[in-house]
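User: Can you fold this complex?
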Amino acid sequence: EVQLVDSGGGLVQPGGSLRLSCAASGFTFSNYWMQWVRQAPGKGLEWVSRINSDGSVPSYADSVKGRFTVSRDNAKNRLYLQMNSLRAEDTAVYYCVRDPAYAAFDLWGQGSLVTVSS
Amino acid sequence: DVVVTQSPLSLPVTLGQPASISCRCSQSLLHSDGNTYLNWFQQRPGQTPRRLIYKVSNRDSGVPDRFSGSGSGTDFTLKISRVEAEDVGVYYCMQGLHWPPTFGQGTKVEIK
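Assistant: Here's the predicted assembly.
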């Protein structure tokens, strides 16, 4: 089955760190750019980060630049998002998303909830 | 960043009646390759978003043919020919041509 499975979310204090993981299966992971999209409670969708197919070119939204790091392990079919210096406004469900081209976003993980609160 | 504006933000509809959502972008989404990179997503209550339509008018596998997309340049429309109960949720348009990708605010479709 073609799928993305998100994991790693949880409750963290402001200033803390968390690493999200996304396990891909059923397709050739290394052929695709991958992205992270988040959704704050009751809000819309916001693009967070992307990484190209071989992991050499990451990109970030201004709101997370310098704090978040995206990476991938094509041998393990996994995508990661290392989140440091977390803020209350980072509270959201984080979705791993497959991108065949031009942000086509054709396959989504089920999401990982990250709550930043003291 | 390209601004994507949807209207209306709330859309109460009667079962079996049509519904239409507008999406306007601050820049043209027409690429030199001839494609226009505008997608529509559906998010049912409590569920993950799923793509319904890509490149303006191409329905994804499994999407009922009552959903259709149209438009060009900066103005786009998602239409539901006859709304069914399972169509309740929030619909987002998203442009993928200009970096970073940007979403509309979402349109909440509910049954009257």
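Residues 62 and 71 of chain B are 22 Å apart (CA to CA). The mean pLDDT of chain B is 97.
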